[in-house]
Design a protein that fits this description.
about 240 residues, mainly alpha, 8 helices, elongated
């Protein structure tokens, strides 16, 4: 750089050829100065270590983790929608991850999922059976509700060509419980028979929906706890 400044400060020769000669010297000095500064920098960049490529085991673990999270998300939906696997699917996915990555960091996730599974069984009983029994539902009404729920969920009711599973599920459960209870209550007068059957149908549907929502909340909590405690950033 000093050489470039010395050339730049030298007196300018006379004539076009002298000006051309001076510009050439300036450019040559500039190139030499820049090269002297870039050479150490390029050497330092070349000596930097190359970024390490991810190991095959890490890629496999990450892919399996994403797949299991997707399975758990299906379990959250299944906890709300009857006839689909719910929290059981989440517990199974956590167990698979534990077998692959170890159960050391799964204490909270697995514990919460198991407790949620036990609570879901209790909710099924309380919301379904006890809710129906409070309004005096018979076993016929409960069986009819289950059959109607199944037929409505899979679009098998001839009166419901909507193609909407959840709508068919609700309406099918009400109709099934109503028909089952109506067939059983032969000792009642027609009007009382209809009122009792309608009461049983609505009670079973409301109890089932409330129970399914509670199970969905438990499943979502289990999924969140798993994500928080096993997020890939926390892996060793």
């Amino acid at each position: 750089m000093l050489a470039f400044l010395a050339v730049a400060s030298a007196p300018s020769p006379q004539g076009l050829s002298g000006f051309y000669h001076q510009v050439t010297q300036w450019l040559s000095s500039l190139v030499n100065s820049v090269s002297s500064y870039l050479a150490p920098l390029s050497h330092s960049i070349a000596s930097l270590p190359a970024p390490a490529a991810p190991q095959a085991s890490e890629v496999w673990h990450l892919a399996l983790y994403g797949l299991l999270v997707l399975v758990m998300a299906v379990g959250v939906v299944g906890a709300v929608v009857p006839a689909l696997p719910g929290i059981t699917l989440i517990v199974g996915a956590i167990a698979v991850w534990g077998l692959v990555a170890g159960f050391v960091g799964l204490k909270w996730a697995l514990g919460v999922a198991i407790v949620s599974l036990v609570l879901s069984f209790a909710i099924d009983y309380l919301a379904g059976v006890l809710g129906a029994q409070r309004v005096g539902a018979s076993s016929w009404g409960q069986i009819g509700a289950f059959v109607g729920m199944f037929l409505g969920l899979f679009g098998l009711l001839p009166l419901l060509p909507t193609g909407i599973p959840l709508l068919g599920l609700v309406v099918g459960t009400v109709l099934g419980a109503f028909i089952g209870e109506f067939l059983h209550r032969r000792e009642l007068k027609p009007l009382q028979r209809i009122k009792q059957s309608a009461k049983v149908g609505l009670a079973i549907v409301v109890g089932t929906l409330v129970g399914n929502i509670l199970q969905g909340v438990l499943a979502l909590i289990s999924l969140i706890v798993f994500l928080v405690t096993t997020w890939p950033g926390n892996w060793a």
